What does this fold into?
Amino acid sequence: MRFADRAAPALLITLTLFVFVLLYGPLMVPIVSSFFTVSHGAVDWSQPTTSAYVALTQNDSVLSALWTTLIVGAGAVVLSVALGTGLALYYASPNAKGRNFLQFIIFLPFLMPPIITGLALLIFFRQVEFERSLLTIIIGHTVFVLALVYRTILTRLQSLSGSLVEASYDLGASSWQTFRLVLLPNLSSAMVGAAILAFALSFDETMITLLVTGTQSTLPVRLWAMMRLGFTPDINALVALVLLFTTVLCLVAVRYLMPASAVAGSDDN
Amino acid sequence: MSERAAPAGPGALAPWLATIAAYVVPLGFVLTPMALFLVYSFFSVDHGSIVFSPTIANYVRFFTDPVFLPIFWRTCLLCFTVALLCVLFAFPVAYFLTTLRGRSRYMLLVLLLVPLLMSYVIKIYAVRSILGGNGMLNRALLATGLIDKPSMLFVFNLNAVLLTLTVLLIPFAVLPIFLSLERIPKALRHASADLGATNAQTFWRVTVPLSLPGTLSAMSFVFVLAIGDFLTPQLVGGQSGFTFGRIIYSQFGTAFNWPFGAALSVILAAVVILAIRLGGRLESKHGGAK
It folds into this structure.
């Protein structure tokens, strides 16, 4: 047993390291290959080059896909944060009717596989004869990210003390003033964090987009189409840039959403 | 929050307007499409156009056709294996995290979760570049002399799908297990040690049983994510790696049979609901550490 007690931590560290290699190792391959020429499966280490990145700036289909992705992301963020805030306020209000049912519907697209959400929307758009376009992608993304945005904002709302709102009313504020001057400032960091998360999810969303898109393709859909044809240096460059961007995005979101206690280092073990 | 006094709305109309406003989008863009696709599963297709008269032919076809059921079971088994592998990897990692203190614990947790928000398609692409016939894995195996010619065991088949999904979904398993391990009061472990249990005994008879709810919900989580995926099998599965998700997707593309695709999705939804309930049900049965 003494031996086991000493061997166990070493085993745990080894396994954790292995999982980190599994998670991050594969991502290194496209990043490294984006800077070096690869021929016949062997990397030429002697000459680092940025030619792949230069080629990327001249690739119109990638640039237009990037533009589409940004528009869709912005649309989905605005819609989902506005809706999510409204729904969270409604859920927390005493007049809410059937709040658990409403919450269930909001969570549905997040619980169900994206393929189901995507094709349900596809059938819906066809049935109401709504032409598939940029707007259908935005609607699809909004419905998908709404659950997370709503939940994030509701959690913050419920952590606020009820006496804040009561004090506001006691001081003669209207409900609009209470919302704007008391609730909104308290919710804003949760809203920003939720917006960043929503953007990151939308930026990456592929399965719903593939189903509800018309002729436009977002960056992941474009990448998906390119990857099916094989490996090229400019895909690797694009992959490297997207990875860098999403990592920065995540770290920013974490700063906004992580509870202060966790950052300060709550220590209970 | 819910106990707070009602805002003095302008008249009795305001609450109703708020209710209507709150329900418009969830009902219009979530529930209606979901209901519609359920209805579609009872339609049929004739010469490329949809026949709007109710029939259960799609479901009969799924249960009688020799093609679909085997793929369905194979996919379920595949996703169950993925869930099992993910938990086997995630448990030691989550446990290791709980042994860390303060800031480093959360930094490491964030590092484990960051890949979740990284582009899914890119991760598949990255793993594929390692798995290929001429990929890193094969070349590493060749270099070590374990094999003398490139192995085709994990190139464009179900094994490749299995490995890729496992690598992609491990972070999803870490979080629920970590949360359930973190909730176990340290007093329980101290009590166990005071009563003379060794560390190993405490681990197997206190920690593992109490973390079971998190482990099970991690499994159902991974299973649900794996079974709904059609991108991974499409990109690394090749000709033989056909999965249920791919078949559904093909009904909306090449096969162009939307009602049949809808019926298959209803079956997928049923499996997903079952998996979620199983994960949650067992969780409530074991109670979890309070």
Remarks:
- Chain A is about 80% helix and 5% strand.
